[in-house]
Automatic annotation (TrEMBL):
<dbReference type="Pfam" id="PF09278">
    <property type="entry name" value="MerR-DNA-bind"/>
</dbReference>
<keyword id="KW-0963">Cytoplasm</keyword>
<keyword id="KW-0805">Transcription regulation</keyword>
<dbReference type="GO" id="GO:0005507">
    <property type="term" value="F:copper ion binding"/>
</dbReference>
<dbReference type="GO" id="GO:0003677">
    <property type="term" value="F:DNA binding"/>
</dbReference>
<dbReference type="InterPro" id="IPR015358">
    <property type="entry name" value="Tscrpt_reg_MerR_DNA-bd"/>
</dbReference>
<dbReference type="GO" id="GO:0003700">
    <property type="term" value="F:DNA-binding transcription factor activity"/>
</dbReference>
<dbReference type="InterPro" id="IPR009061">
    <property type="entry name" value="DNA-bd_dom_put_sf"/>
</dbReference>
<dbReference type="GO" id="GO:0005737">
    <property type="term" value="C:cytoplasm"/>
</dbReference>
<dbReference type="GO" id="GO:0045893">
    <property type="term" value="P:positive regulation of DNA-templated transcription"/>
</dbReference>
<feature type="coiled-coil region">
    <location>
        <begin position="81"/>
        <end position="108"/>
    </location>
</feature>
<keyword id="KW-0804">Transcription</keyword>
<dbReference type="Pfam" id="PF00376">
    <property type="entry name" value="MerR"/>
</dbReference>
<protein>
    <submittedName>
        <fullName>Cu(I)-responsive transcriptional regulator</fullName>
    </submittedName>
</protein>
<dbReference type="InterPro" id="IPR047057">
    <property type="entry name" value="MerR_fam"/>
</dbReference>
<keyword id="KW-0238">DNA-binding</keyword>
<keyword id="KW-0175">Coiled coil</keyword>
Length: 147
């Protein structure tokens, strides 16, 4: 099947299929005599695997590792579990950071009168900067502002 058909069957866009091939995540597709990519059912199965892994938030590097394990019938499930466990730890850390950012923004919104006056605690907070940008909190943590 051609790249458009493979894209439709796998749920992975043709652009991403080309990218995965270019980066080595998937092997180069066979080519027809006229030079068009020709994908097999096995290729589509692999693309679906990649799509599902991407849907779960795995990075391309993690997917590459998972694909290697998927292809290796002598693999140990402990290796797969290790990758998944590390990934869920990363996801939980991101969730915590996002919740902190949301809390910070909510606190700023609560402090903002939202009226005709130009004073705005949201803008005031955004303009705050220490002498060293590396000292700025990155997690969204903010001291509570007085009301």
């Amino acid at each position: 099947m051609n790249i458009g058909q493979a894209a439709k069957a796998s749920g992975v866009s043709a652009k991403m299929i080309r990218y995965y091939e270019q980066t080595g995540l998937i092997p180069p597709a066979d080519r027809t005599e006229s030079g068009y990519r020709d994908y097999s059912d096995s290729d589509v199965h692999m693309l679906r695997f990649i799509r599902r892994a991407r849907d779960l938030g795995f990075s391309v590097a993690e997917i590459n590792e998972l694909l290697s394990l998927w292809r290796d019938r002598s693999r140990q499930s402990a290796d797969v579990k290790r990758i998944a466990a590390a990934h869920i730890n990363d996801l939980r850390e991101k969730i915590t950071n996002l919740e902190q950012m949301a809390d910070t923004l909510q606190a700023l919104i609560n402090c903002c009168a939202g009226d005709h006056r130009p004073d705005c605690p949201i803008l005031a907070d955004l303009e705050k900067m220490t002498d060293d940008p590396q000292e700025q909190p990155r997690s969204g943590n903010l001291k509570r502002l007085p009301h």
